[in-house]
Amino acid sequence: MTTAAPINNPALPTDWRDFYALTKPRVMSLVIFTGLCGLLAAPGSINPVIGFTAILCIALGAGGAATLNQWWEADLDAGMKRTAARPIPAGRMNPTDARDFGIALSVGSVLVMGLAVGWLAATILLVSIIYYAVIYTIWLKPRTPQNIVIGGGAGAFPPMIGWVAVTGDITLMPVLLFAIIFMWTPPHFWALALFIKSDYAKVGIPMMPVVRGQASTRKQILAYSVLLVPVAGAPWFIGGTGAIYGIIAIALSLAFLALSVPVATRISEDGDSMKPEKRLFAFSIVYLFALFAALVVDRVAAYQGFPT
User: Fold this and answer.
1) Burial degree of 247 (CB within 10 A; 0-12, 13-18, 19+)
2) Would the pTM of this model clear 0.85, i.e. be above it?
3) What is the DSSP secondary structure assignment for residue 269, as one 8-state letter?
4) What share of the chain is helix, strand, coil (3-state, %, to 5)?
5) What CA–CA distances, in Å, run from 43 to 162, 173, 241, 300?
């Protein structure tokens, strides 16, 4: 662990809301949603109790990985305006308690997933936790500007886990769902990094805008946005979904691409409001929710016998 700023010892008992904050609930909401959509869109059926258990384990595993991420990066978080108020750098929680909480959530989620749902789903969940808490947090993030590109796999596992919880095997469709989030992550996160790059620069994190500069980052945002169009449409192209998903996926992806163009073709200056970057970042979140919702709508329509 590197040191960016001292972390105060907590003077008061930790509030339950601090434990909740460690799980990064806003990020977790997207993880839960994509995992649920993967489960609902998968062919076959699953007992509702088992299905609920699978989604709960995905949520707990994601929360455990996020907690371990905050435990490891507490000193870096203390040096960034955006994260300084988190429980550990703000001095409201003992780092050891956070670490133990993260380990308990991670181990518990994998064991329950294995015993109640299936060990293939549990194995993928374990890989996703290690990917985020170790490969991305400890290895990639402080070493390479490609951290988000390679580390994007960490957030791409939930729909695959949900799918496997139902089917018990890995086919091309869950791999494509993984690929969609993998390709979506760089333009989503780099749009954010462009308007908070000073925070990353201050604590020495080699995010793309800090190391390679704005121009390179903007070109890569556009490149990944272009690639996202065929990747998002691939489930329809291979016959894994109907036209409902396909048309919505292509329309959303073209809108994503259109919003990335002004980001790629401009140069911001000090004091710039960064409206195109903020607009792309905000839409990218809506995009993923809407895309995976379309996957479920398409599946329900096919199940009900409606033409898709």
Assistant:
1) middle
2) yes
3) -
4) 75, 0, 25
5) 11, 10, 11, 11
**Residue 151 to residue 229: CA distance in whole angstroms:** 21
Q: Using an 8 Å Cβ cutoff, are 216 and 208 in contact?
A: yes
Q: What is the pLDDT of residue 7?
A: 52
Cβ burial of 22 (10 Å; 0-12, 13-18, 19+) is: buried
Q: Are 124 and 164 in contact (CB under 8 A)?
A: yes
User: CA-CA distance, 124 to 161, in Å (whole number)?
Assistant: 6
Q: What are the structural domain ranges in the chain?
A: 17-169, 171-308
**Residue 84 per-residue DSSP state:** T
Cα torsion at 255, 249, 196, 190 (round to 10°)? -100
Q: Give the sign of the dihedral formed by CA 37, CA 42, CA 44, CA 47.
A: negative
CATH architecture of 17-169: Orthogonal Bundle (1.10)
Q: Look up residue 10 and give its DSSP letter.
A: P
Residue with tokens 């998002």: 232
Using CA atoms, how far apart are residues 24 and 256, in angstroms rounded to an integer?
25
Q: What is the CA radius of gyration of the chain?
A: 20
User: Along the chain (308 residues), what's the average pLDDT of each consecutive run of 10 residues?
Assistant: 46 77 92 96 94 97 96 91 90 93 98 98 97 92 84 90 96 97 94 84 85 90 97 96 96 98 81 84 96 96 68
The predicted pLDDT at position 197 comes to: 80
| Structure tokens given for 221 | 């945002």
* The token pair that represents 98 in the structure block: 């956070």
The pLDDT of residue 271: 55
Contact 268, 244 (CB under 8 A): no
Q: Contact, 51 vs 35, CB < 8 A? A: no
Note whether 285 and 27 are within 8 A (CB): no
Instruction: Determine the residue type at 288.
Output: L
Structure token pair of residue 73: 């990066």
